[in-house]
Design brief:
- By secondary structure, the protein is α/β, with parallel strands linked by helices.
- The chain contains 16 helices and eleven strands.
- The strands form two sheets. Strands 1, 2, 3, 4, 5 and 6 form a six-stranded mixed β-sheet that branches.
- Strand 10, helix 6 and strand 11 form a beta-alpha-beta unit.
- The two termini are 25 Å apart.
- The structure holds zinc ion.
- The site of zinc ion has 7 residues, from loops.
C-alpha cells in the first residue's frame, strides 16, 4: 500500500476524496497532507443533494492533530458545484467545519483540553493563538446550548459572580434540581432576569414555568424575579442571611475592640463554626465567652441561635422560633443586630419560605468557586463572552457532540 493510500485510510476519506501527496519537512517538524479529487468528479449540491459538476475550487489549509512531533496540516482544493437549479455553492468537506482553520479532530482535542486547563495553556501546548481557540470553544458551546431542553426547570438559584475584581459582574442562573448552569449574562440588575426569561423561551420553557427561586436580598433581583418569573416564590438564600448576621457580629466586635483589646484579631473565632476551630482558638473563644458583659459574646449567641433555627424543617416551628429571635434581636442593645432584625422583618415572606422550600444557593457557592479558580488559573478573561463560555463548559453539563 502506498503511503498516500495509508493516509487516506487514516483520515477516513471516502471517494472522490483521496490523499495525493504527503511531504515531511524534518527541519520544520512539519507534515503536509494534500487531499484531492480526480478530474471530472461530481459532488452533491448542498441544497438539493443532486450530484453536480465542479464549478471552481479554492485552496484551503487546516491544522490537524500532530503526527508524533510533527505539526500536521491538511491541504485541499475545496470545490464549488454548479447546480442547474440552485446555482453555485461551496460543498462541505467531511474533515472540517465551514470557516474553520482546524480539522474536526483537532477541534475535538482543543475542546477536551479546554475543559481541563486554561485556554492560554492549551494555546501554548498546541502552538496556536488563544483567540483562535476561543472561537472554536464559542462555536461548540453555542451549538450545544441550542440543544439544551429547559422544559423541566422549576427551581432556580440566582447569584452574581465577578469577572474582574470589585466590579464587572456576571449573573448565573442555575437549575437547582439538575444542578447545572442554565444561563449566564453580564450585569447584576433586573434586566438579567429578562434575558434569562428569553433564554428559557428559546429552550422550550418560559419564565412562567419557574415556581421557586433562591437568591440574596438584592432589590434588583427581587424586581427582576417579580417581573420575569411571575409564578416563582422567592426563598432568600439562608447562606446570604447567615452572612448578614455574621457581618453584624463582626461590626459589634470591631466597635467593642476599641475598649476591649482582647477582641482584636479574633474575627474568625466568632464567625466560624466552633467545631472547625483549632484547639487554641477554641480555648480563646471559651475564655472570651466567660465575660457575660461582652457585647460580642451576646451578638455571638444571636448568631448561634439564628443558625440553629435554620436547621428546622417545619414552617410553623421555624416561624415561631424566628419571631422570638427577631423580638430579642430588635430589643437588644446591639445596633448591628437590631439592623439585621429589621432587614429580616422587611423580607419576612422570602425568609420564612425556606422552611418549606428548603432551597438554597449552596450549589451556586460551589459553582462560583470552580469558576473563580478557573479564572485565576487563566489569569482572568478578556471578554464577558469568554468568561461565560468557560462557565458553560465547566458547569453547563453540555452535550458537546465532539467528533471522534
Ligand atoms: Zn441543487
Amino acid at each position: 500500500m502506498a503511503p498516500e493510500e495509508l493516509f487516506s485510510l487514516a483520515l477516513g476519506l471516502v471517494p472522490p476524496w483521496l490523499v495525493d501527496d504527503v511531504t515531511f519537512q524534518v527541519e520544520e517538524k512539519r507534515l503536509d497532507i494534500h487531499i484531492n479529487f480526480p478530474k471530472g468528479s461530481h459532488f452533491a449540491c448542498p441544497v438539493c443533494g443532486e450530484e453536480c459538476p465542479v464549478h471552481d475550487t479554492r485552496e484551503h489549509t487546516w491544522r490537524h492533530m500532530d503526527f508524533f512531533q510533527h505539526e500536521a496540516y491538511l491541504h485541499a482544493r475545496v470545490a464549488r458545484v454548479r447546480c442547474p437549479e440552485h446555482g453555485v455553492h461551496q460543498i462541505p468537506v467531511p474533515w472540517a467545519r465551514e470557516g474553520s482553520c482546524f480539522t474536526l479532530l483537532f477541534e475535538a482535542l482543543i475542546m477536551a483540553l479546554a475543559r481541563e486547563m486554561p485556554v492560554l495553556t492549551v494555546a501554548r501546548l498546541v502552538g496556536e493563538t488563544d483567540t483562535r481557540l476561543w472561537r472554536v470553544i464559542d462555536h461548540y458551546v453555542s451549538e450545544a446550548r441550542t440543544r439544551v431542553d429547559m422544559a423541566h426547570v422549576h427551581a432556580v438559584g440566582v447569584d452574581e459572580t465577578s469577572n474582574r475584581r470589585g466590579h464587572d459582574y456576571i449573573t448565573l442562573f442555575v437549575d437547582l434540581e439538575a444542578r447545572r448552569l442554565l444561563f449566564a449574562t453580564p450585569g447584576k440588575d433586573a434586566s438579567t432576569f429578562a434575558r434569562f426569561a428569553a433564554d428559557l423561551e428559546a429552550h422550550g420553557s418560559s419564565g412562567h414555568a419557574v415556581t421557586d427561586v433562591s437568591m440574596d436580598l438584592s432589590p434588583a433581583f427581587r424586581k427582576g424575579a417579580e417581573e420575569h418569573l411571575p409564578n416563582a416564590r422567592v426563598t432568600f438564600d439562608r447562606f446570604h442571611l447567615m452572612k448578614l448576621v455574621n457581618e453584624a457580629v463582626d461590626a459589634v466586635r470591631r466597635s467593642e475592640a476599641f475598649t476591649q483589646p482582647d477582641l482584636k484579631k479574633t474575627r474568625w473565632l466568632w464567625l466560624k463554626n466552633e467545631q472547625k476551630l483549632k484547639v487554641k482558638q477554641k480555648e480563646k473563644l471559651q475564655a472570651l465567652l466567660k465575660d457575660q458583659n461582652l457585647k460580642t459574646a451576646q451578638a455571638y449567641q444571636f448568631r448561634l441561635t439564628f443558625q440553629d433555627i435554620f436547621t428546622i424543617k417545619n414552617r410553623h416551628q421555624g416561624a415561631t422560633l424566628l419571631k422570638a429571635w427577631l423580638e430579642n434581636a430588635r430589643t437588644s442593645d446591639l445596633p448591628p443586630i437590631v439592623r439585621v432584625a429589621y432587614t429580616i422583618m422587611n423580607h419576612w415572606d422570602g425568609v420564612l419560605r425556606w422552611f418549606e422550600s428548603q432551597i438554597t444557593n449552596g450549589i451556586l457557592e460551589g459553582f462560583n468557586s470552580l469558576i473563580q479558580s478557573a479564572k485565576a488559573k487563566a489569569r482572568g478573561y478578556r471578554t464577558h463572552k469568554n468568561f461565560i463560555n468557560m462557565a458553560y463548559l465547566i458547569l453547563g453539563k453540555l452535550d458537546l457532540r465532539l467528533p471522534t
